[in-house]
Structure prediction request, 111 residues.
Amino acid sequence: MFQTSSGELGKAALAGVGTAVGLSLLAGAIVVFFQIPFFGIIIVGAIGWAVGEVVYRASGYKQSKSLQWVAGLSVLSSFLVLTIFGDFTAILGLIIGTYYAIQRVKPPRGV
Prediction:
């Protein structure tokens, strides 16, 4: 449950980054067309939650510190994609989203 193989990490990384980039492109299109204020804060937080869940499921419902890195870096990639669209308010969403993603794949204390 707490030991992840390199294959599981690879699947989780591909799924996490793919989800993050895909959802960020969709969110970027919404930002460009609708100009919703502070949308980046909300959407990157929601993307973080989704990425955490996708990484958790893609790894075979495992939790480990290496999966925390995968989830956190995936959320960072979503933030970088959103900054292309000029939404710099997403930095607060990056903090919130990374927290959500990491908490989803965090192993229990002492493991």
